[in-house]
Amino acid sequence: MLTRLVPAAAAGVVATALVASPAQAATPAVMFTKVYYDSPGSDRGGNTSLNGEYVVVKNTTRKAIQMEQWVLRDKNGFKYRFPRFTLKPGKQVTVRSGQGKDSSTTLFWQRKWYVWNNTGDTAGIYRGSDLKRIDVCSWSRGVWTNCK
């Protein structure tokens, strides 16, 4: 399970603290809740396998968020630009790597190969208006991670 950590730089401490700073204590407006980065079976690039790789992001606010032009990306620079899409208050959307038809709960990256590295990667989500990073989720090994 992933834990968001904050460096402890105050008072000469060289360690990692488990307590969030005030700036990081606030829940992001849109946050990752899950990344399933190693789809079931062998990675041969079939669309079913590609769609077994996905991220889930949630609107943590009480307001609808227009996601058009927001960006989802990995550490290698693969980018998914959200289409015209409204994420309703408290709701989640799944972004699948492969091809398919978008709906109110699932969006498709329309890729023909995998995005997320099974051995470790970082997912970031950036606001469309100024590309400010809103949330990030990193992992090392396994199949999936809760990004809470």
Helix-strand string = EEHEHEEEEEEEEEE
Mean pLDDT: 84
Through-space gap between termini: 8 Å
Structure summary, number of beta strands: 13
Order of strands in the sheet with most strands = 10-9-4-3-13
Radius of gyration (Å): 16 Å
Unreliable stretches (pLDDT < 50, length at least 5) are 1-23
Main sheet, how many strands, which sense, barrel? Answer: 5 strands, mixed
Q: Secondary-structure blueprint of this entry?
A:
Elements: E1 6-8, E2 15-17, H1 22-25, E3 30-36, H2 47-51, E4 54-59, E5 65-66, E6 71-74, E7 79-81, E8 86-87, E9 92-96, E10 106-108, E11 121-126, E12 133-139, E13 144-146
Parallel strand pairs: 9-10
Antiparallel strand pairs: 1-2, 3-4, 3-13, 4-9, 5-8, 6-7, 6-11, 11-12
Polypeptide structure, described:
By secondary structure, the chain is mainly β. 6% of the residues lie in helices and 36% in strands. The chain has helices at 22-25, 47-51, and strands at 6-8, 15-17, 30-36, 54-59, 65-66, 71-74, 79-81, 86-87, 92-96, 106-108, 121-126, 133-139, 144-146. It has a five-stranded mixed sheet, with no helix packed on it. A four-stranded antiparallel sheet has the order 7-6-11-12, with no helix packed on it. Strand 6 (71-74) and strand 7 (79-81) form a beta hairpin. The model is unreliable at 1-23 (pLDDT under 50).
